[in-house]
Design goal:
With about 375 residues, the protein is α/β, with parallel strands linked by helices. About 30% of the residues lie in helices and about 20% in strands. The structure holds S-adenosyl-L-homocysteine.
Length: about 375
């Protein structure tokens, strides 16, 4: 539960086993509260092993002892307990006008899980409800620069955040190492989220991560995201399909040069071409398409940094886009759109500006 209350200086008593309560403990600690933890009457693993920073009072053995404890705190968060203890706590809370919050237990299975979360193209409003729920339940989030990270602290309160886009030496963590880290965390019983930009299965190496989890026996699920292949053109006012203009679109990676035979096929299809990771090979692609028979006045758009405050679109034609891009100094991340739908972008980046203004109002 996130109610946006300020807990700094408040005393919070969390009731429940250390593993089941670990996220609730972490969340209240993060929110600035002084946190006390009652795991149960028996001998338990010291909570400090799970979440450092909390105090464990003596477990109350009588109604009077519960009364004294509950009178001394501002809020009791019950994660799990017996029905009898629950009733004693509820009665004491109502006597002392102490807030009572019933909280959801974290998974205590010996093997955790991995959820690949598509974070969309960067705008908070384009995160799905499923993405936010998965982040909220995470013990650890592995993220990179393409995923939305502005408010990760709020979306995944109390979770550990690990940047696998960059290591301390500023080099990207190799894909296999990132997979090993995720699997190791899950095998240690943690609820892992891998937050990715756009959709995990659109050039996101999500398929490889699913296979790595399956090979290690780790339960894995995928939450689809809004892909930049559609949303970034839209943010510049370009629909990837439009009645009577284009009834198909092809999404390709420009990471490696596209062969002549692939280009010939794309021209033959006749629909919209959307290129991701295409800045490095743009000149080669535009020249190849023109050489192999595409109309040289075919409209082309390059949209850089979609949904960021400095989103920029460069519009041209097949025969001019190379020079325009070089002149403008376009850089990654950018989406290239080739096709007649580009002419429909009457308002260009104004569409994105409107969306960002609206989003800012909603978040204010
Ligand atoms: N899985 C992602 C794509 C990963 S490949 C998705 O579905 O969107 C990375 C490429 O995506 C970048 O090189 C760029 O071409 C594109 N991209 C992702 N986010 C973008 C953004 N906000 N603005 C422009 N291009 C973006």
């Amino acid at each position: 539960m996130s109610v946006g209350l300020d807990f700094s200086g408040k005393r919070v008593l969390v009731v429940g086993g250390a593993h089941a309560a670990r996220r609730v403990l972490a969340r209240y600690l993060t929110s600035g509260a002084t946190v006390y933890h009652l795991a149960g009457p028996g001998p338990h693993s010291p909570v400090s092993l799970v979440v450092p920073g909390v105090t464990a009072p003596v477990f109350p053995r009588s109604v009077g002892a519960w009364d004294a404890l509950i009178a001394a705190v501002d809020l009791v968060a019950v994660v799990e307990t017996t029905p009898h203890t629950d009733a004693v706590i509820a009665a004491a809370c109502s006597r002392h006008r102490t807030w009572l919050s019933r909280e959801i237990a974290a998974s205590t299975s010996p093997v955790g899980s991995v959820t690949l979360v598509g974070g969309g193209p960067g705008l908070e409003r384009l995160l799905t409800v499923g993405a936010l729920a998965a982040l909220n339940a995470a013990d650890i989030v592995y993220y990179d620069r393409l995923g939305p990270t502005d408010r990760l602290e709020e979306w995944a309160p109390g979770a550990e955040h690990v940047d696998v886009g960059k290591a301390p030496g500023h080099h990207a963590v190799p894909q296999r190492d990132a997979e090993r880290m995720m699997v190791a965390s899950a095998l240690a019983g943690r609820t892992v989220v891998r937050l990715k930009g756009g959709d995990p299965f659109v050039f996101g190496r999500g398929g490889e991560e699913v296979l790595a989890c399956r090979a290690a026996g780790v339960p894995v699920t995928v939450i689809s995201g809004v892909t930049s292949a559609i949303a970034v053109p839209a943010a510049a006012g370009i629909p990837v399909t439009h009645r009577e203009v284009s009834h198909l679109f092809t999404v390709i990676s420009g990471h490696a040069p596209i062969t002549d035979s692939e280009l010939t096929h794309l021209i033959g299809l006749g629909g919209t071409i959307v290129v991701l990771m295409g800045i490095g090979t743009l000149q080669q692609m535009a020249a190849g398409l023109a050489r192999l028979g595409m109309r040289i006045d075919m409209p082309v758009a390059i949209i850089e940094r979609g949904f960021a405050h400095d989103q920029r679109s460069t519009f041209g034609r097949l025969d001019t886009i190379g020079a325009l891009a070089a002149h403008a100094g376009v850089r990654s991340p950018a989406v290239v759109v080739i096709g007649d739908v580009v002419s429909l972008a009457a308002h260009g980046d104004e569409a994105a500006a409107d969306l960002l203004r609206e989003a800012a109002t909603l978040q204010a």
